[in-house]
Amino acid sequence: MWRFFLVLTVSIPAALAEFPSTERQHELRNILEHDCGACHGLTLQGGLGSALTPQALEGKSDDFLVTTILEGRKGTAMPPWKKFLTESEARWLVNQLRNLPAN
Ligand code: HEC
Predict the structure, then answer these.
(1) CATH code where residue 57 lies
(2) Most CB atoms closer than 10 Å: which of 6, 10, 52, 101?
């Protein structure tokens, strides 16, 4: 039984470390709205950049989208964000985009 607890206490902090802090989540939401929104539209329905709504991202893998955010897309206006975002933050953003409320 105690072995189960050991696994639990060792694995939970590791999982939390992957998740942006509440403060950082606030910053990331601001980046999404202002920086990403400048191209993708304030409500992310699209503008110069494509729509980033759950429907628009359906069928595209997390890895593909995370790579797009971190590396940008050559030949398009999509810039690389890896100087400003870690991979787990990009992953968190993709997860936010997949769960955007329809508006
Ligand atoms: C300077 C304009 C610009 C900014 C700023 C920008 N993007 Fe983009 N983004 C684009 C364009 C243009 C595309 C479409 C590229 C293409 O035609 O394949 C794109 C594509 C994407 C895609 C792929 C969508 C798909 O359906 O494949 C994702 C995800 C994305 N952007 C996320 C972001 C995020 C997150 C940010 C902010 C951190 C951001 N973008 C900021 C212009 C921008």
Answers:
(1) 1.10.760.10
(2) 52
Residue 4 falls within a domain, yes or no? Answer: no
* Overall domain count for the chain: 1
Which residue from 49, 41, 28 is spatially nearest to 94, judged by alpha carbons?
A: 28
Q: Cβ(27) to ligand 1 under 6 A?
A: no
Give tens-digit pLDDT for 4-45: 555 555 555 555 557 899 999 999 999 999 999 999 998 999
Query: How far, in Å, from the CA of 40 to the mean position of ligand 1?
Result: 7
Residues 65, 77: Cα–Cα separation, whole Å: 15
68 pocket-lining for ligand 1 (C-beta < 6 Å): yes
Alpha-carbon gap, residue 54 to 45, rounded angstroms: 10
